[in-house]
Amino acid sequence: MTFTQLRILQAVARIGNMTRAAEELATTQSAVSHALRALESELGVALLVRGNQGVSLTAAGRAVCRRATLILTQAEALEQEVAAIRGQERGSLRVGVIPSANARLLPPILRRFAEAHPRVRLTVMEGSDNEVLEWLETGAADIATVSAAVDEAPLPAGSVARPLAADRMLAVLPSGHELSVRHSLPVAELARHPFIMSTGGCEPLITAIARAAGASLKCHYRVRDTNSILAMVAEGLGLSIVPELSLPAHHAGVHAIPLEPAAERIILLALPADPLPTATAFAELATAHHAASP
Predict the structure, then answer these.
(1) How many angstroms separate the CA atoms of 219 and 212, rounded?
(2) 256 FRET partner, CA 20 to 30 A, in 87, 150, 236, 244?
(3) What's residue 293's pLDDT?
């Protein structure tokens, strides 16, 4: 059993596809398949179920993957701590991010971290709130951004979260819509029109905002991707509510208006109970960058 085999198992378990896992690990699919078959042979159990839709873990695979993550995390922590004692800097950092944070909030932080820590291998993994939380819990991510939305799954036991940014929730409607002249928009006004519900992680918060306003949204569509939501809004298929950070710099055909009363979500930076030194350094840089931002 080798660290390489465990890293391959971890990547395939997270991605669910051997080809994409091989690309992430900068190796070949045949090398990935060979490593996993060798690991299964050594352990005497099937770790993966292979199918046309990709691969998934067996019950034994899930147990082995949990242990593999613990082993790899501790090995990485050991290497980083020993390097620090020698006055060197090395290691890796895997950052789990939600799409809206990755689009506008994280890029300058990632650039500053890469400049300050050029010898650290930085990997960014994008997923929904629930996916990112799972990566943090299993150790697939060393640090993560999540939103503090209503009814959101709790943080993994022992993890610590600090506020990173406040993100306004905005109503989005087609340019030229009768409501586009308003400076702010009550949710009750949105309830009079077909609504496009975001299923990418904001649904609990949007539902809570509507409930607080005593409004019942007419959800004609349920869409995960923000760009798809904006394209549908631009075509006049309905109105929606999205986080400001998820809006691209240019969104032709769409007009964004603050809600009335104002609503926002908080973006958190979450670390496990025993974070890697690189994760701690990233958290300190990120919070300092946000505090200094206008």
Answers:
(1) 17
(2) 150
(3) 64
Beta strands 185-186; 120-126: pairing state: unpaired
What is the end-to-end Cα distance of the chain in Å, rounded? 51
């609503």: which residue's tokens? 263
Nearest Cα to Cα of residue 183 among 255, 263, 264: 255
For the chain, give the percent of residues with pLDDT over 70.
Answer: 95
Judge contact between 202 and 170, C-beta under 8 A: no
Nearest to 200 by CA among 161, 228, 235, 220: 228
Give the mean pLDDT of 1-21.
86
- What is the phi-psi region of residue 236: left when phi exceeds 0, alpha when psi lies from -120 to 50, beta otherwise? left
Average of per-residue pLDDT values in the chain: 86
More confident residue, 80 or 228: 228
Regarding pTM above 0.85, the answer is no
Spatial distance between the Cα atoms of 30 and 22, rounded to a whole number of angstroms: 9
